[in-house]
Structure formats: C-alpha cells, structure tokens
Amino acid sequence: MPSSGAVSHTSFGDEWSDRVVAVAGLGSVGLAAVDALHHIGATVIGIDTHEIASNHDERAKLFTYLGVKLHHGESAPSVLDNLDLVVVAEQWMADSSIVAHAYSRGIPIWSEAELAWQIRGEEPAPWLTVAGSRSGSATAVILERILSAAGVRALAVGNQHASLLESVMDPEGPAVLIVELSETQLRWPTTLSPVSAVAVDAPTDDTLFNPFSGTQIACVYSVQNAGSRRLAEDADVVEGARAVGVSMASPGFGDIGLVENIVADRAFGDDPRHEAEELFTLDDLGDVEAEVVISALAASAVARSVGVKSHWVKIGIGDFASTLH
Questions:
Q1: Of 25, 185, 189, whose CA–CA distance to 112 is shortest?
Q2: How many Å is the Cα radius of gyration of the chain?
Q3: CA 49, CA 72: separation in Å to the nearest integer?
C-alpha cells in the first residue's frame, strides 16, 4: 500500500458564509444536508428532479423557513453560474443533468460523506468506514455491537442507519462513527481519513474512488476477493497503515480467518507470527449465510485494529446473533 504520510484536507474553513452551495436531491439525506449547511452559514439552493409542492410537502415548508431557494427539472442548470459547490445528497441525482453540467464547468462536487467530513468540529469523533454493496450494512451493525460491548459509545450511520450529518452536527453525538459508504459516495474525490476501513466487496464500477484511501491504521479486505485485495494494495494511505485480510479459510500471518469453526486472529494477537488468538466460534454467530460470516470477520478485524480485546469481540458477536433468532 503506498503511503502518503499526510492526508490532503481541503475545505472552506470558516468561510461558509461566503459560499453558495447546491444540494442535489431533497430526500431525507438532502434535508439533513440543507439543515447542516444552513447552520454553518452557507447560502443553500435545493435541486431535485421534480417540484416540491409548497402546499403539500412539509419539507417545502422547512426550506421556505430556512430561506432555501428550490429548483427542479429543466430550471436547475440556470443556478450554476454562482455556485461554489454541489453536494449530491441522494442517489437518484448522481446521474442527473445538473450534476453533469456542474462537473463540466469544474464546480466541486461532494458526497454526503465528504460534506460531513469537512464540517466536523474541532474535536470530532473518529470514523471507521465500511464500503460494500452486499456486506456493508451487516458489517456496520456488527461492529457497532462489538464496540458497544467494549464500552465504546459507537453508532452506525449512513445509508439505512442513523443520519451521518445529524450525528456529525450533534455536540453530544457518539464517540465513534461507523460510516457506511455507498458506491454513490465514492464517485467523487474525497479527503476522508478513517482510522480503519473495510471493503470486502470490490466496487462494481472501476471509476469509483478507492474506499481505503487515507486510512490511518488498517485496511480490511477479503482474501478471497481479488478486487478487494487490489484496492488494499493500491490505496494511498497514511504512513504506518497496513492491510489486514479476512478469510473463510485458515488465516496467514496478518490475517483473520477460520480454523474449522473457530475465528482465529493472526493479525493483532500477542504473537501473531507464531500463534493465533481465538475471537469467537461460528456457533456464537449462529446459522447464518456466508456473507454474514465475512461481515463478522471484517467487523472483528476493525475492532481489533482499534484495541478491542477478544473477550469483547465474542460478546459483541453474541449480542448481534441474539437479534437474528
């Protein structure tokens, strides 16, 4: 994995009051983006593919209260002339003409995750990121359970979980954010620098940005997935970060895998080069599909990378399993 030593972090700093930002997509994520941008003083324009009826939509009433100008359909391109930034908040806007026009004009385009990263406070909660269309959601939930078992106030956010932007803006928010990244959020450049990251599913689109980029400690990949391994090998990470494989077979040095029905850690134990440490058994997880097993291995690897003891991993896995049966 190439090491950059430092992560580029370009933001508007305290200059948001001078910025005009368009939020593309006015669903629940778009609403949170509008609210966050308004809170930090930006001038906000809301854009969607259809008109929000002012008499029938509570969102429209809120936008009016916040002073947000709304544009829809073919009227949207006319707002690009004075824009400083476009935030693509909803998946259905990713391929819209307004985003394409903004890109062609060189207007910066951010995802919801990039916006959340840029507007964090002075002492923000660390991020652990999870990418993967098939395994991402389960991995985030299992990791939340493991960290909670260890006494860490962690919260899974993004996609179908709690609101990422609302959690970032909450002064009494969680101590650790487990951020699930969708493929839509990886379509544009990002300055994210998670403590550790998971991507055991290789993205289906080769044009997406590497979800491991900027990782500080561990890039958790699937040994059986060549695309996942390639992402870990190619990522531009912070100096000292390392790749940790998870495997449905016996683990090699530096990996976590299965020895019969035992999940064995040869990445973070006391002497991983010569011996493995038991984390949990498949019986603890219960009768689940192979993808859930991989998610549990990946979540365990991230937890171990941030210092969680094997005892708490086993308890967290049991807590997760209890919700399935």
A1: 185
A2: 21
A3: 5
- The CATH number of the structural domain formed by 122-322 is 3.40.1190.10
Model confidence, pTM: 0.91
Q: Which fold has domain 16-107?
A: Rossmann fold (3.40.50)
pLDDT in tens, 266-287: 999 888 898 999 999 999 999 9
* DSSP-assigned letter for residue 34: H
Contact 258, 248 (CB under 8 A): yes
Provide the pLDDT confidence category of residue 71 given band limits of 50, 70 and 90. confident
d(CA 148, CA 171) in angstroms, rounded, equals: 20
Residue (of 208, 155, 147, 146) closest to 182 by Cα position: 208
Question: b/e for 100-113, b at 16 or more Cβ within 10 A?
Answer: eebeeeeebbbbbb
Domain ranges of the chain: 16-107, 122-322
Nearest C-alpha neighbor of 260 from the set 249, 268, 252, 271: 249
Three-state SS at 276: coil
Euclidean distance between CA atoms 5 and 239, whole angstroms: 5
Q: Enter the DSSP assignment of 17.
A: G
* CB atoms inside a 10 Å sphere around CB 307: 10
Average pLDDT of the residues of the chain: 89
